[in-house]
Amino acid sequence: MSTYVLGISAFYHDSAAALVRDGEIVAAAQEERFTREKGDARYPAAAIDYCLTEASIGVRDLDYDSATVCRWVIPAMK
Fold it and tell me: Which pLDDT score, from 0 to 100, does residue 76 have?
């Protein structure tokens, strides 16, 4: 059984997603490739969908997820 990890970078320049299966990159994409908005900082829903589709899996098949956090995005963090 494979282990899937979804990485998400969101809410600042070039939001993106990447999917890793058993330590190997399966798919990765920047949100701007789908929205055609350069530097798109929104949540990368289309990039996530692309990664899951490339691997022929659904959200329930993910074992782990990981997200980057910038301190200015969450001011309470120090």
Answer: 56
